[in-house]
Structures are given as structure tokens and as C-alpha cells.
Amino acid sequence: MKKLFFLAVCLFTIQLCIAQHIELLDSSQNCSFRGLSVVNDHVLWVSGSNGTVGLSTDAGKTFSWMKVKGFEKTDFRDIEAFDAKTAIIMGIDTPAVLLKTTDGGKNWKKVMEDKRPGMFLDAMEFWNEMSGIVIGDPINGKIYIARTFDGGETWRGLPEEYYPVADKGEAMFASSGTNVRKLAKDEACFITGGVRSRLFIRDKKIDLPILQGKETTGANSIAVFDRKHFVIVGGDFTNAASSEKNCILSSDGGSSFSTPATPPAGYRSCVEYITKKTLITCGITGADYSIDGGNNWKLISSTGFHVVRKAKKGKSVFFAGAKGKIGKLVL
């Protein structure tokens, strides 16, 4: 009887993993999407290369597409949306800009611009509709951080003495807008990659047991469930099929890390919590699903995506990636 019960549990677990798949919703745009913000089960925004932004109000069935005037060549690698009217997009460099719309993308207002050589923005995160943070690659050896407290209308960099110091060859990847995450009220953490890969929490700089040592290696994305539970993914995007040191887990706030028994099937650029035990991750070689807190991953699709995000207010999970691909997780 015990053997039969164990077999039934195993079969149920296998069926549960196999049941997950990704439905392709759209691939009409000639661009690469790395920005994705899912407001609720109906409203989602995407942003990407060639100045492209998309808005759906019917759960991805249809999209309103727009090219941001004056920024047709800009790569908008992150977006933060608050409703069907309000969103902020991040143009990474030359110059680095943040633009805001309050009318569903009909008009965009420049709320931040930085023309300094070497300026490169990587990701945004908001605690609520008023308070947010943006981070960028090191300038003169110091990681760029700016804050807003008025819904992104104005942004101010930290005082020079408070910018975190980066090691030589240490930076961030603007791969999915998820290398900075909120931890608690007015507190965030972020991860770096490259020659050295670390987790930054206030004054703490924690070395990560993830693949690093080259410009193309390191941590790409961190998912935070609470102050104790983190999952971090990355690897080497030039060796995308390799699972070597591409995922690490912490259940004590970063004091220690473990590696999965079954890691994701290759380099991964984004990871997201669905529940405390259920996670989704994706990269250019596919997407993986975990039902045990990230200790074991099951490849559910060989279609590549750059970013995956769960609805802020809802249960829906969407993907976006190269060649204009947008998908939805089907349970």
C-alpha cells in the first residue's frame, strides 16, 4: 500500500509539471522585448527595442502598439506600469532616459535624462505608485542609483558618498528588469554580474556562488518572496545551454545559499515567484517550472523568452522575448 501511495504521488507530481505550458499570444513586432509589467489579470505592458511599447487590456488577446516619438531607436529594457493609463519606460543609454505616460501611451514626458559617457541603466523597481528606484552600471567605479518619491515625476541620484563601490569588471545585466527587487518598506536589494557577482542589501555585499569570472557570466535576476527567501538565476549567455552554477537559493536572507538538485535547463535571465513554493524562470533556451521552492526545475518550453512576470494584483503570468514574442503561462 505504501509503495502504491508513493507511486501515485510521483505520478501526480510528474503530471503537474507536464501540464504547464506557454501559449504564444503575439509575435507581430520587429523588436526584442525585455520590459514587462503585469498590472492585473487583464492589463499588461511590454517595452523593447526600436522604441516599441505595447499595451493590452484584455489579457494579451489584443495589443495597442506604439513607437515613442523621438525615441524610435531607443531600447526600452524595463517598464513599470500602474494601470492602463500610467507607465514609466527605461531607455538604457545614449542618453539614458526615463519617460512617463498618463494617457495610455499617447504622450510621453521625459522625467529623467543622463547624457554622461558610460551611463547605462539596468532596471527599475517600485514599492508602490509613488516610491521607486532605478539602478545602472558603475560610473567611475560606483553603481548608479536614483530614487523617486512622487510617482516617477522626478528622480534624484544618491549623494556621491552613498553610491555602492563596484569591483573591476562588476556590473549589472539589463536582461529582464529584475536585478533589483523590493525587500520591505523602502528597502531594496540588487545583484551584480560579470567578473564578480554579488548581492547588495544595504551595507552588506554578499558573494554569490553562481557562475562568474567573465563579462558574460553572473547573476541576471533575483526573485524575492520575503526577507528570507530568495532565488537567483543567471549563468553565461554565450553558453546558453549550460546549467553550470545557473541558479542558487537562500532561505535565510542571503546568509547562506544552496544549489538546486535539478537546475534550470540553461542560462536564465529572469525568475519569478508565483507562490512560496511555485516559481517560473526563463531564458533564451526555454522556460522552467518549480513546485518545491526552486530545488527542482522542469523544462516546460524550449521557446526562449527574456522576461517573465506575474500579475501584481492577480494570478496571471506572462512572458516576453526576442522577435516580438509574448506568451502566457497556462496551468
Which helices and strands appear, and what pairs or packs with what?
Elements (H helix, E strand, L loop, with lengths): L1 H18 L1 E6 L6 E6 L5 E5 L3 E5 L7 E4 L8 E6 L5 E5 L4 E6 L7 E6 L6 E6 L5 E8 L2 E7 L7 E2 L12 E2 L8 E5 L2 E5 L1 E2 L3 E4 L2 E4 L9 E8 L5 E7 L10 E4 L19 E4 L5 E5 L2 E5 L7 E4 L5 E4 L6 E4 L5 E5 L1
Antiparallel strand pairs: 1-29, 2-3, 3-4, 4-5, 6-7, 7-8, 8-9, 10-11, 11-12, 12-13, 14-17, 15-16, 16-18, 18-19, 20-21, 21-22, 23-24, 24-25, 25-26, 27-28, 28-29
Describe this structure in words.
Strands 1-29-28-27 form a four-stranded antiparallel sheet, with no helix packed on it. A four-stranded antiparallel sheet has the order 2-3-4-5, with no helix packed on it. The chain has a four-stranded antiparallel sheet with strand order 6-7-8-9, with no helix packed on it. Helices cover 5% and strands 44% of the residues. A hairpin with a 3-residue loop joins strand 3 and strand 4. The chain has one helix spanning 2-19; strands at 21-26, 33-38, 44-48, 52-56, 64-67, 76-81, 87-91, 96-101, 109-114, 121-126, 132-139, 142-148, 156-157, 170-171, 180-184, 187-191, 193-194, 198-201, 204-207, 217-224, 230-236, 247-250, 270-273, 279-283, 286-290, 298-301, 307-310, 317-320, 326-330. The model is unreliable at 1-17 (pLDDT under 50). The protein has a single domain, classed as Methylamine Dehydrogenase, Chain H (7 Propeller), CATH 2.130.10. The chain has 331 residues and is mainly β.
Secondary-structure element string: HEEEEEEEEEEEEEEEEEEEEEEEEEEEEE
Task: Report the structural category.
Answer: mainly beta
Corresponding CATH architecture: 7 Propeller
The Cα radius of gyration reads 19 Å
Number of beta-strand segments: 29
Shape summary: globular
The fraction of residues assigned to DSSP E strands is 35-45%
User: Considering DSSP H and I runs of 4 or more, what fraction of the residues is helical?
Assistant: under 10%
**Average pLDDT metric:** 94
- The number of domains is 1
